[in-house]
Specification:
single chain, alpha/beta, seven-stranded parallel beta sheet, 9 helices, Rossmann fold, binds 1,4-dihydronicotinamide adenine dinucleotide, globular
């Protein structure tokens, strides 16, 4: 177990699988105590016990990031158990892809509610603790779609672009309290989310990736680990791209 984050408390949303899970386990390996959250209580409990198996304290809290009440309870339980939160990773995200003219109001609203409003709720709740601590790191998992746009993902591209604006506004607003806010923008990463992509869409995307392969959740998690560490103490308001060169 590394000691880079020993004694720190991290909270990761959407940590039951995919990129969020890799982030939770990587922060745990670096020595952080980790609060894992997601909607399904059984999966959340399983993720928390996987964290504990790495030899650090873990806490699982079932919470829907689109619900202000749930997020308040999530952060409250984290504070009750650990007394602080040093690292917030806003990772929970969904897609509801459709071409614009076929996109339903609910497709738009659900994606904005989870991918953007959820990050606002969690950042607001955690910032109160971090301001008192006069330190903290907020890391938002955005997407290449938020900078390049993606046909069939008007809702998701808008939400992720919004997350970049949120990142920069919070970086400016919270710098005074020693809270650093950055975004990580992954390209095509091998997870359940992208397993659902139609093969043509996947091939089309891969053809544009100079490294000619999809990335792994671990390759995203390593960048989050760095941004959470003391080594990244002079980085705020930035978007770090992890995309094999898809966008540069
Ligand atoms: P995934 O679908 O495998 O995992 C998403 C996680 O978020 C799951 O644990 C899920 O339970 C949780 N979640 C969904 N809705 C939630 C809600 N309302 N409240 C709490 N938790 C919720 O997705 P993946 O691929 O691991 O994506 C993680 C993040 O990375 C997302 O924000 C996604 O937009 C972003 N991303 C993923 C890329 C990829 O290629 N897989 C590329 C760029 C960004």
């Amino acid at each position: 177990m590394g000691d880079g984050l020993a004694g720190r408390v991290a909270l990761v949303t959407g940590a039951t699988r995919g990129i969020g899970r890799a982030i939770a386990l990587t922060l745990a390996e670096a020595g952080a105590s980790v609060v894992v959250s997601g909607r399904d209580p059984a999966r959340v409990a399983e993720a928390a016990s996987t964290v504990e198996a790495l030899g650090v304290p873990g806490l699982g809290v079932a919470a829907d990031v689109a619900s202000a009440e749930d997020v308040k309870r999530l952060v409250g339980e984290a504070q009750e158990r650990f007394g602080r939160v040093d690292i917030l990773v806003n990772n929970a995200g969904i897609t509801r892809d459709a071409l614009l003219v076929r996109m339903k109001d609910a497709d738009w609203d659900e994606v904005l509610a989870v991918d953007l409003r959820g990050a606002f709720y969690a950042s607001r709740a955690v910032a109160r603790l971090m301001m008192r601590q006069r330190s903290g790191r907020i890391i938002n998992i955005a997407s290449t779609a938020g900078v390049m746009g993606n046909a069939g993902q008007a809702n998701y591209s808008a939400a992720k672009a919004g997350l970049l604006g949120l990142t920069k506004a919070l970086a400016r607003e919270l710098a005074h309290w020693g809270i650093l806010v950055n975004a990580v923008a992954p390209g095509l990463i091998e997870t359940d989310m992208t397993a659902a992509l139609p093969p043509e869409a996947r091939e089309g995307l891969l053809a544009q990736v100079p490294l000619k392969r999809a990335g792994t959740a671990q390759e995203v998690a390593e960048v989050v680990r760095f941004l959470a560490s003391d080594a990244a103490g002079y980085i705020t308001g930035q978007v770090i791209h992890v995309n094999g060169g898809l966008y540069m």
